[in-house]
Write a structure and sequence with these properties.
Length: 67
């Protein structure tokens, strides 16, 4: 796993290069902070919504399954 990937529901997800990093909310680092915070507080509903939406919009991709 690289710096911009995380585990969720037995899958590994990775941020794509579509993040422009023109402001703090567009940076990969900020997005990783958001995902890690949601995992920390166990807000799995918001996490699932963000994962689904970001995959649909091309900002996130599924890298692999965890065996």
């Amino acid at each position: 796993m690289n710096k911009y990937s995380f585990k969720f529901k037995n899958k590994i997800y990775e941020l794509t290069d579509l993040w422009e990093e023109t402001c703090i909310n567009d940076s990969k680092d900020f997005q990783m902070e958001q995902f890690n915070y949601l995992l920390k507080i166990k807000d799995f509903t918001t996490m699932e919504n963000r994962v689904n939406n970001q995959i649909m919009l091309g900002y996130l991709k599924e890298s692999s399954y965890i065996k």
